[in-house]
Amino acid sequence: LKMQNSDNNAQADEDYLVFLSLHLAALKAARIPPLYWKSLYSKLKNEVFDAGEVFGIMQVEEEEESEKEVNSAKEICYKVIVTRESGLQATDPTSVFLVDHAWTYRVESARQQLVEIPGLLIRMASLMGMPFHGEVPDPDIVDQVLDHMWKYNQTYQLSQGSAEEQVPVWYVMDEFGSRVQHSSHPTCCMAPLFFAPQQVAYSILWPLQDLENGVKFGDKRLDDLLEDVGKRNLRVYTEIKQVLDHLKHPRFQFTDDRNEADIIWAFSHIRDYRKLSEERPHVLLNQFPCEMVLTTKDCLASVARRARGGRGAPWLPLTFNLQTELPQFIKNYQYREK
Fold first, then answer.
1. Which residues have C-beta within 8 Å of that of residue 329, sequence separation ≥ 6?
2. Which among 150, 297, 304, 335 is most buried, taking Cβ atoms within 10 Å?
3. Structural domain of 331
4. If you average pLDDT over every residue of the chain, what do you get?
5. How far apart are CA 118 and CA 136, in angstroms?
6. Which helix (H) or strand (E) is 201 found in, with range?
7. pLDDT, tens digit, 9 for 90 and up, residues 146-181
8. Domain of 199: which CATH number?
9. Backbone dihedral region of 330: left (phi > 0), alpha (psi from -120 to 50 degrees) or beta?
10. Which residues neighbour 27 within 8 Å (Cβ) at sequence distance 6 or greater?
11. Which residues make beta-bridge pairs with 253?
12. Can you list the positions of beta strands (E) in 48-131?
């Protein structure tokens, strides 16, 4: 019996090493702490979805006031909270959770999937809070889902394969994952991971700090973080001449030291948002994560091509990315030359 257990443990260790050899780069890219890797592998292998044992979804009604209507309609939103009495400990190796993807697709096939895949439209409409009755796909509901899905969409991109295979894949997380709200000062982190043996992508959730029972994700208030900053002048770091020339208010003082700045107004792209949010959460920036999809020309062209069901935005001229579409560019050039 001891020998059998020893053999089983050796096999398990070997399987885990194989997992690391296939996924190490992805684990590091997602910044999932090594503390959780072994437990994560076990949950992936056995398809363990145990987030429901720790978290719950709380419905919140928020009344929005407008100038036109004093008694405006109440908007229903959701918050994910820790419901386990013992809370959640970041140092526990098992404090890592799988989140399933309810819908994975490429933009050009989104409408077709909503119409043809049984139950998908109903599930997406319910997840997005739209009233829908009946089994026959309603064109109006399809249009509403396609309009609202960008509030729930996430994306990942395969690092290997042909240029076509590396086109970003869009996905909507399940009812639990879609209720996790983004926060500028997060208490938990979530990242996609493609599990090679199953050829399936999941989102991985893990805590950034210990959480007590009843704590909502992102409960830290920006007011608390800025309290000490609000009592003094703000130091501004910038390399932009217009800011240097025109920011004259006495409340702001320029500094050449980026590390001591309260405000960073940068010209070059800021890339390590996570480091800033963890080490200097009070710092204000003139950029936000992933804005490069609009502010760099190759990404903007790629996004614009997806408009109107893949036919492209009407304002986008014929465009080629010479890193991935050089043969198509040459073909078009030769065709026009003739």
1. 320, 322
2. 304
3. 299-337
4. 86
5. 10
6. strand 200-207
7. 999 998 999 888 776 666 667 788 999 999 999 998
8. 2.170.270.10
9. alpha
10. 20, 34, 37, 193
11. 235
12. 55-63, 74-82, 97-99, 101-105
Residue 135 predicted with pLDDT over 90: no
pLDDT tier for residue 11 given thresholds of 50, 70 and 90: confident
Sheet holding 101-105, edge to edge: 101-105, 169-173, 153-156
pLDDT reading at 1 higher than 90: no
Q: Where does residue 289 fall: left (phi above 0), alpha (psi -120 to 50 degrees), or beta otherwise? A: beta
* Maximum pairwise Cα distance, the chain: 79
Q: What is the pTM of this model?
A: 0.61
Q: What number is the average pLDDT over the span 250-269?
A: 91
Planar angle of CA 234, 236, 240, nearest 5 degrees: 155
| H or E element that contains 303 | helix 297-305
Tokens of 88: 């959640």
- Which residues, at least 6 apart from 320, have a Cβ–Cβ distance to it below 8 Å? 326, 328, 329, 332
Rounded (5°) CA angle 58-179-181: 100
Segment 180-192, tens digit of pLDDT: 988 777 899 999 9
Strand partners, 79: 58
12 and 54, same structural domain?
yes
Inside any domain, residue 174: yes
**The pairing of beta strand 252-254 with beta strand 284-285:** unpaired
Q: Are 78 and 58 in contact (CB under 8 A)?
A: yes
